[in-house]
Amino acid sequence: MIRLSPLTAKRLKRFRSIKRGYWALLLLAGLYALSLGSELIANDKPLFVHYQGRFYFPVVEFYPQKDFGGTLNTAPDYKKLARDPAFAAAGGTMVFPPIPYGPNESLLESLAGDPPTPPTWRNPLGTDDRGRDVLTRLIYGFRVSMSFALILTAVGILFGVLIGGMQGFIGGGFDLVVQRLVEVLGMLPFLFVVILVGSILGQGFWVLLLIYSVFNWIGLSYYVRGEFYTLRNFQFVEAARAMGIGRMKIIWRHILPNALTPVITMLPFMLISSIFSISALDYLGFGLPPPTPSWGELMHQGLGNLSSYWLSVFPFLALFVTLLLTAFVGEAVREAFDPKQFSRME
């Protein structure tokens, strides 16, 4: 069982007392947890199929047409299969998710007009220029954006703490050389790097993550470097050295826990930057490749279909609310970890 220090316990209590940030965190965490099961919420595959006394689960497993009376080894069209009289005659039934559309499913056959079509009871947020349900793509796009931001933030914290901490603790010539390299890296034009690397390696989730990871840790490393510079000269660190404690143990047990305040306070704002950046790149056409669900790609469609307001308004609102909730969390974390708050409380 992890035992929290009294100061950490006070900070967590202070964070929970800031209702706006606390509930924003719970809401974001809940929405992301739901998005991880997007296939159970919105999908063109049924949750389960009962056919000839057996149960099938197409959401999690592939089944060929032959399993349902067909002749091919390819995946069946479950919606056509549900309307097949032979399937019903064999006692077949299936249950679809609450939103029976896939993120890349074109609904051209069932639309009243040419896409993009406005919101209806069947498609509450309308369809995009390829006849795909906008609500479904927003749900899947939230999972893509949040997963990208969380992984990128974790990688940025890892490298920012590692490199910035080494600079601040070792100092001297090592710090001077590394800092010049960091400054040169920070001067590179990010968009040109994305275009260049994308043209070589291709566009994709992991390629974009790799490119972003090269730059994302730089700002954080400055703060960690400064914290380590300050803390390495404190009396408790000098006392640990005098006792013969090794460098790694001093860093891990004495300096790092006291240097994490800027890391924790910057974490929500790194998430905001990551979510906004991936949406902006998708909007510009340099982000995730089609047909990956993306809020930025939907807003880009809205630019080409100005009369189809739903293509711009709903993705923008989703992005705005997500960033706003994350900002509430960031403000609450910053206030909870502010030393001035505890001096006032005392």
CA-based gyration radius: 26 Å
Query: What proportion of the residues form beta strands (DSSP E)?
Result: under 5%
Instruction: Work out the helix count.
Output: 16
Low-pLDDT windows of residues: 342-346
Beginning-to-end CA distance, first to last residue: 29 Å
Question: How many DSSP E strands?
Answer: 3
Q: Main β-sheet, in a few words? A: 3 strands, antiparallel
The strand order across the widest sheet is 2-1-3
**Shape designation:** elongated
Helix percent reads 55-70%
Q: Whole-number average pLDDT?
A: 87
The helix-strand sequence is HHHEEHHEHHHHHHHHHHH
Structural class: mainly alpha
Task: Describe the protein in words.
The protein has 16 helices and three strands. The relative contact order is 0.12. Mean pLDDT is 87; it is low at 342-346. The longest helix has 37 residues, at 134-170. Strands 2-1-3 form a three-stranded antiparallel beta sheet, with no helix packed on it. Helix 6 packs parallel to helix 10 (218-231). The chain is 65% helix and 3% strand. It is mainly alpha-helical.
Short description:
The protein has 16 helices and 3 strands. With 346 residues, the chain is mainly alpha-helical.
Question: What are the key terms here?
Answer:
346 residues, mainly alpha, three-stranded antiparallel sheet, 16 helices, 3% strand, elongated
Chain-wise SSE layout:
Layout: H1 6-17, H2 19-35, H3 38-41, E1 48-51, E2 54-56, H4 78-83, H5 85-89, E3 93-95, H6 134-170, H7 172-187, H8 190-201, H9 205-216, H10 218-231, H11 235-242, H12 247-259, H13 261-284, H14 295-304, H15 310-336, H16 339-345
Antiparallel strand pairs: 1-2, 1-3
Helix pairs in contact: 1-15, 2-15, 6-7, 6-9, 6-10, 6-13, 8-9, 10-12, 11-12, 13-14, 13-15, 14-15
